[in-house]
Design a protein that fits this description.
- With 810 residues, the protein is α+β, with helices and mostly antiparallel strands.
- The chain has 30 helices and 22 strands.
- It has a five-stranded antiparallel β-sheet, with no helix packed on it. It has a four-stranded antiparallel β-sheet with strand order 12-17-21-20, with no helix packed on it. Strands 7-10-11 form a three-stranded mixed β-sheet.
- A hairpin with a 6-residue loop joins β2 and β3.
- The protein starts with 6 loop residues before the first helix and ends with a helix.
């Protein structure tokens, strides 16, 4: 391989690393990001990770949240044979969070080089792509897998482009590896949006093939691309298959059987939840004017001086965002100059490829509008496969975030190559600047004609005088932001004018455009990822420091009981899971049946004390708002398992759920026919045939007790002079759990809507539960085969490079 040929590229890559580190300078001081989602994730996985590290055993289940659930979507403590992840680990050598920006710049630069764009312009495009505000926002809150997926997107498209340009081997290797790296992060919503881009690209290539009479080559390239796509997914098939299996039981992919439920009968998220974060149609202009809608939900007080003066010095953050989304972490700002270059690219790029880019951008924007364009988006949600599994539809803006700088830099490259009549080129520059700068000025100066700068949901709580000041500050911030964007566009247009008039050389144009792009984008991005988002390592460790109440509970040597923490948001806070095995927690894909239980028995109507007892809720933490949290022991918790006297058969899910009705915590009212889990198990009639004439009971000394605690394995001992039916306070999940009595497998029945029950013969017995999902262990064989194919393909693609070197030496 001729390394001299790539020497400059290597220096550019080092420059990307340096720029990433400079932008993330607190990282160089030893500080770490204190992102909320990363803190939550560490709490989610703590039990499983610690258990795996200490025992070396496979861990695919955790009891730390929602009384137990698979760990597929958070952490897998088992060998998945996902070896492409080691390449990602190598890229992390730059350190976190700098490596996010490094990967994004590196992959976009690679795409530009594959497209034949000027090397220095490629750097400008890489900076524009990496430092779009959304990237900093999601890094700041800890959406690591989402950002890594965004980073790899350009490299995947580069490989796809090479395949269709008949550089099949090189393209196949690049596309497969980029998609494998994307897949190993398991952010399926991002992959879904990738597929939209790839499909649009494929349609564009089809039209080109028809025009050029190359349909044969098109179909060969399409077949290769599909095969490569399959190969790229194979190393992560363990994650994909188990997640897909689990999704059918979750609130994302499952369907509640309860009547009157707000979810679709066919499964998937309900529309209200899925479209809660829908971008307003007017809010789309934030791609060009960052503070048109105020920015984030709360912004520094200096951005709202009139309001700050009115509320006094105590308020350092004020509610500036006035859009309709429940919360907003910051604007999706692509850059005023990037938007200008995108419009210019539409005018100057002659290739038909620009139309698939436009089509993909339109699709992304329409999807991001969500409930604000219900006629289209509700139809797509109900008909397009898998679309109803995703929420936060504003995320679809990653499509234009990727394609705006792609077409913009491509157009600028066309300008520099000088293939245009200068008079026509100057006309196109004026049109592009007129459209973009004109919109900025119109929306900035005349914003009050289009917007009222009011958030109907949040602003009603403010006094009229305060609201008036707040609206004036919002309008002023929008105008300032719009005029600043217009100035950047005019400067960019001025650089192009000077170039067209031969007043500056291409290198000056590129340098000037790169500088104005950086000045435009980086300050906005840094507003949402600056030194305030970092903390010393010791401060990060304090996030996981147990409170006195946690320490008191942790004195209990019992290895397996549950805690209901009411001092936190019980179902939206994962920190509790760092210390305890919890009834609650936080997870965006908890089991549908457990969500049903929360909605009907442990939600706004109160906490059913008998349901808490059957979940072995041994401690309840209360207080924590104005007083120190306190622990209330629950002496009526039923323990890990017990024999019952009778079964109450339920024909429907509603009957089963209603049969669990019992007084709530603190309720002294006597409820007739209240559920008593110590005596009765509620089981669906679908299991009735499995019982036949089985007669069960218990004597006065009968017991089932835990003898060994593990995450994927539990052992119990039982004694009963009669044949018995035992209920376990463990969550029922048919896809993996097996039960054995004295080594012989026995069926597991679902009892009390969410728990497990098994038959246990009379006498003394050893009962074992084992979580060995067949899907996972069979998929590992496919993953290994996929790694062999993937790395073999990449190695084969590199052979010609070394052959050229040997030939040159001769």
């Amino acid at each position: 391989m001729d390394f001299k040929k790539y020497r400059l590229d290597l220096f550019i890559i080092l420059g990307f690393a340096l720029l990433s580190l400079l932008y993330c300078y607190p990282q160089l001081q030893g500080k770490k990001l204190k992102s909320s989602d990363s803190v939550m994730w560490q709490a989610m996985v703590h039990e499983a990770q610690s258990y795996h590290d200490s025992t070396g055993k496979d861990v695919l289940w955790s009891n730390s949240m929602f009384s137990g659930m698979p760990t597929y979507t958070t952490y897998i403590g088992a060998n998945t044979y996902n070896y492409p992840a080691y390449i990602q680990d190598f890229l992390k050598i730059v350190g976190k969070p700098a490596y996010f920006f490094f990967i994004a710049m590196l992959c976009f630069y690679l795409l530009m080089q594959v497209l034949g764009v000027n090397r220095w312009l490629s750097i400008v495009g890489a900076i524009a792509y990496a430092f779009a505000s959304y990237n900093s926002i999601i890094i700041g809150v800890g959406h690591d897998t989402k950002m890594l997926s965004i980073g790899y997107m350009p490299a995947a498209l580069a490989g796809l482009y090479l395949i269709y340009k008949e550089k099949w081997l090189t393209g196949a290797a690049l596309f497969s590896m980029a998609m494998a790296l994307t897949a190993c992060n398991s952010h399926y919503q991002m992959i879904y949006y990738f597929l939209i881009v790839f499909i649009c690209f494929g349609v564009g290539m089809l039209f080109v093939a028809i025009k050029e009479g190359k349909l044969k080559q098109f179909f060969i390239a399409t077949a290769i691309s599909i095969v490569c796509g399959v190969v790229s997914m194979m190393p992560t098939v363990t994650l994909i298959s188990t997640t897909n299996e689990y999704a059918k039981e979750t609130m994302r992919g499952g369907a509640s059987e309860l009547s009157g439920h707000d979810k679709k009968s066919t499964g998937g998220l309900d529309k209200e939840y899925a479209f809660r974060w829908s971008m307003g149609i007017g809010e789309t202009f934030c791609v060009m004017i960052p503070y048109l809608y105020g920015g984030a939900t709360v912004e520094p007080a200096e951005k709202a001086p009139k309001t700050a003066e009115m509320v006094g010095a105590n308020a350092d953050m004020l509610p500036i965002y006035w859009g309709a989304q429940p919360t907003q972490m910051g604007p999706v700002y692509l850059g005023a100059v990037v938007c200008f270059l995108f419009v210019l690219g539409l005018l100057v790029v002659r290739s038909a490829h620009k139309w698939w880019i436009v089509a993909a951008c339109i699709i992304g924007i329409i999807l991001s509008w969500g409930k604000n364009l219900p006629g289209i988006n509700y139809l797509l949600f109900d008909t397009i496969p898998y679309l109803n599994k995703f929420r936060t539809v504003e995320m679809a803006m990653v499509i234009p975030q990727f394609l705006f700088p792609l077409l913009g830099i491509w157009g600028l490259n066309e300008v520099i190559e000088g293939n245009y009549d200068k008079a026509k080129l100057w006309k196109n520059v004026r049109i592009a600047a007129g459209i973009t700068a004109g919109l900025c000025i119109l929306l900035g100066v005349g914003g009050s004609m289009f917007f009222d700068f009011t958030n109907p949901a949040a602003d009603s709580r403010y006094q009229p005088e305060l609201l008036k000041a707040l609206k004036e500050d919002r309008a002023s911030l929008a105008m300032t932001s719009a005029l600043k964007s217009a100035v950047y566009i005019i400067i960019a247009g001025g650089l192009l004018w000077a170039f067209i008039k031969n007043m500056i050389k291409p290198v000056v144009l590129i340098a000037g455009m790169g500088l104005i792009v950086a000045i435009d984008l980086i300050p906005v991005a840094q507003s949402y990822l600056n030194e305030k988002y970092y903390a010393d390592a010791t401060e990060m460790e304090n996030e996981y420091e147990p409170r006195d109440v946690d320490k008191a509970i942790m004195q209990d040597r019992d290895p397996y009981y549950r805690v209901l923490d009411l001092s936190r948001d019980p179902y939206n806070d994962a920190i509790q899971a760092y210390f305890h095995k919890c009834v609650g927690g936080y997870h965006p894909a908890k089991m549908e049946m457990y969500q049903d239980l929360i909605d009907r028995q442990m939600g706004n109507k109160g906490f059913n004390r008998e349901v808490l007892n059957m979940l072995n809720t041994k401690y309840i933490i209360v207080g924590g708002q104005k007083s120190a949290p306190q622990v209330l022991p629950n002496s009526t918790a039923l323990g890990n398992a017990w024999f019952i006297d009778e079964v109450k058969w339920a024909a429907t899910a509603d009957e089963e759920m209603n049969a669990l009705n019992a007084p709530s915590l603190g309720d002294t009212v006597n409820m007739p026919n209240a559920f008593n889990p110590r005596k009765t198990a509620v089981i669906r009639s679908t299991f009735k045939d499995n019982f036949g004439t089985y007669a069960f009971g218990k004597d006065s000394s009968a017991f089932v007790k835990l003898t060994q605690y593990g995450l994927d394995e539990l052992s119990f001992a039982s004694r009963n002079s009669k044949d018995g039916l035992a209920v376990f306070s463990d969550i029922y999940y048919a896809a993996g759990w097996k039960a054995y009595v004295d080594g012989k497998e026995t069926p597991i029945y679902k009892a009390n809507y969410v728990l497990r029950a098994i038959k246990i013969p009379a006498g003394q017995h050893k009962i074992e539960f084992e979580f060995k999902p067949r899907t996972f262990y069979e998929a590992r064989k496919i993953a290994m085969a996929g790694c062999v194919l993937l790395f073999g393909l990449c190695a084969f693609a590199l052979v010609p490079l070394f052959k050229k070197k040997e030939g040159a030496a001769k």
